[in-house]
Amino acid sequence: MIKVSIWLWFSLMRELKRLGNNTRESGAFLVGKKGSRKISSYLPYTMFDPNCLDSGIVRFSSNGQVRLSKYCREHNLTVLADVHTHPGSSTQQSYADKTHPMVNRKGHIAYIIPFYAKGMWPLFSGVSFYEYQGDFEWTKAMKPKITLL
């Protein structure tokens, strides 16, 4: 189970809403110190690939992946999960979501937030949680894979 402070979660929702500007998807990596299950910060996708949101959906480049890996290595961080938004109420994985995991590692957790992260109260309302099984297979979790602190 991943842990996050309520303040960090609300800050993340505000940032996703700002980045998407109610017109496009946005996203971030949720990171923590190596060996920890607590999210210490979030890193917007645009920090590593400034153009990844330009098409309206997330298209994260391999150069962005290299920059993310380098950043995590230099700061002793690990990606615990990733989160991105969808425009409406549907938080089902798209074909692109399924076939392009942001972290290609078994057990990686991906969150999909509805309505471009507008009005995220109550917490996790409408959010979908997916766990990567490898070989482009995902399992949708019935319960959140996150606990608020």
- Strand tally is 8
Gyration radius from CA atoms, angstroms: 14 Å
Number of helices: 3
* Percent strand: 25-35%
> How does the helix and strand content classify structurally?
alpha/beta
Elements, N to C (H/E) = EHEEHEHEEEE
Major sheet strand order? 3-2-4-5-6-7
Shape: globular
Sheet with the most strands, sense and barrel status: 6 strands, mixed
- Cα end-to-end separation: 12 Å
Mean pLDDT: 92
Helix content: 10-25%
Q: Are there runs of 5+ residues with pLDDT below 50, and where? A: none
Task: Tell me about this structure.
The longest helix is centred in the first third of the chain and has 15 residues, at 6-20. 22% of the residues lie in helices and 28% in strands. It has helices at residues 6-20, 62-74, 95-99; strands at 2-4, 27-33, 41-44, 77-85, 109-113, 128-134, 137-140, 146-148. The model has no long low-confidence stretch (mean pLDDT 92). The strands form two sheets. The protein has a six-stranded mixed sheet. It has a two-stranded parallel ribbon with strand order 1-8. It has 149 residues and is α/β, with parallel strands linked by helices. The protein has three helices and eight strands; from the N terminus they run βαββαβαββββ.
Q: Characteristics of this structure?
A:
149 residues, alpha/beta, 6-stranded mixed sheet, two-stranded parallel sheet, 3 helices, 28% strand, globular
Summarize the structure.
By secondary structure, the protein is α/β, with parallel strands linked by helices.
List the helices and strands and how they pair.
Blueprint: E1 2-4, H1 6-20, E2 27-33, E3 41-44, H2 62-74, E4 77-85, H3 95-99, E5 109-113, E6 128-134, E7 137-140, E8 146-148
Parallel strand pairs: 1-8, 4-5
Antiparallel strand pairs: 2-3, 2-4, 5-6, 6-7
